[in-house]
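Researcher: Next entry in the queue.
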Amino acid sequence: MGRQADLKEILVPTRITTVALQSTAAVASLDLSRGLGPGATEAGPSPRLAKPPKADSTSISNSTSGSTGSNSSSGKRFQPKQHSNMAAGGAAAPPSTSSVSAANVTSSLHDRGMQQLIPIVNKLQDVFAAIGKHPLDLPQIVVIGSQSSGKSSVLEHIVGRDFLPRGTGIVTRRPLILQLYNTAFLRGGGEDEGGREGGREGIPEGKEWGEFLHRAGERFYDFMEIRDEIKRETDRLTGKNKGISAKSINLKVYSPHVLNLTLVDLPGITKVSVGDQPADIESQIRAMCLAYIGNPNSIILAVTAANTDIANSDSLKLAREVDPDGLRTIGVLTKMDLMDPGTDAADVLLNRVIPLRIGYVAVVNRGQRDIDSNLTIREALRKEAGFFKAHPVYRSMLKQCTTPTLTRMLNNILMHHIRDCLPEIKSRIQAMTMDVGRELEALGEPTTELSRATLGGTMLGLLSRFASTFQSAVEGRGSFAAGREGGGVGGAETLELYGGARINYIFSEIFGKALMGIDPFATLTDEEIRTAICNANGTRPALFVPEISFDLLVKRQISRLEQPGLQCVDLVFDELLRMAAQCETTELTRFPELRDRVVEVVNHMLRKCVGPTQMMISNLINIELAYINTSHPDFIGGSRAVAQLMEKMAQEKGGGGREGAGRREGVPGGG
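Model: Structure for this entry, 671 residues:
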């Protein structure tokens, strides 16, 4: 059983690979075209929304007059049309509560399919968060603001519950992707991000809860527990030194009192590090914010406190760096009730100070005194509505005030912006699906349910293919090079020597030339030879060259052959290691633990062979050193040297005699 478990363990692909393949396949199964309303085409821009009915004190419309229809086609920069009337309901009084009933939601939607767009994007966000990659620029609303701007309070008022951590300094230290789902819409037949809870089944009526991506399947009905979980998950990754991390926390909130919406809450912009925060905390937060708002498909929600100079707004300044024309930036003015007496933000709301294409919305959030006195968010929303209705300036600008107005506007902007980006997203996902399909096909049959009978066979097949690939590399059959960069005809390498060809090159070129390059007389001088002869004779005079001195000098030269041989072993060993590391079959690649184990075993076997091989080379050299064979036909010993000398002298003498006789025969006789 233990061995069976070990085999199953090493035959399981990495978690990221599994999640990536499964998640991409799940996304590919989504019908992305279902969000395109009647009369809309995939390539066409979104139409201007119809004017909704006026809002009253008990219902909230989900449409806006003068919507943010996009001037861009799919995939282009988000350019909503110029607003004259930003929020729903014209000059009608804002509602006193954020509660949205199922009837209000379903009746006010001119196209029910539009509400399916946000859950689709939420599913994509969850997929990308799971695999740790973001191959698509998804439409999303990114919330930025300074620490004291009231950003967290705006989000809590939109949700209608206290759920965000509070405290001094930086509290939000990881991006929080907040996905809101209206349960009344789901109970009416809508779908959430995966369609897993469509209809009434699984949707408790009137209940509110949250779900975290990192704790899938768990529901948090107590929003204080949600707050604690955000703290724990933040500290788990960043520690408790107020550091930050770019890895997001994904939170879904299901409630009958929210509209379908997705927001990304980022750490508050700060200037100076406090306590044990990193010294570069400002640049870290700035880089994180720019990474999110730099996405051309993102909508920037720039939160600014109204009791500060709008010209010094950190959020608007940062948004202008990526959106200089203010085409996709929404300004949110908080703390409207804290402005100095006699002052107001009318010029800002009328777009006269820092113009934004979409414009500004003013809100009033709970202050610390309200929180300490346990003022509920629902009561705070009624208080907010009363403040704007009673204000002599803002009561004529109610279409740009209150949190419900902001929520409705964000819901409509996000839906239509997603619809405009949908064709490009769909085509990109289709291309990704095809790539993943080819990868799945190359990986072979699934092995998630291996039985005892098939486990050994699967393992043997993988090892056999690896051994065959390694053998092909040694023999140069070419199949080993399939997929290698620079592969030529038939898969053979054309850019560099590899495998058996490389080993042959080591033998013939490197090792062979090293041996031929050894000059036996390069390290011997005449003085060394005379000294060796004298030392071998001792006190006796030398008539012939002593054999001992010859052996001594020859053994020194034979020993020089050992080092090139040992170097050849090292070069061949390195090449074999490289072959083992690069001879990965496609099937073996999907099992990284098995691959590492196979390479480890092969390397161990090769390493065990290095010692005996080096020992054999040393033994061969020692054999040659132990006995100098002077009887070899190519060896010229002393006797043979004398014989050759005598033969040469005889030849010279014979030639000289014939030459003298010729001269005598040519001399004329006397007398």
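Model: The two ends are 126 Å apart (CA to CA).
Researcher: Noted, moving on.
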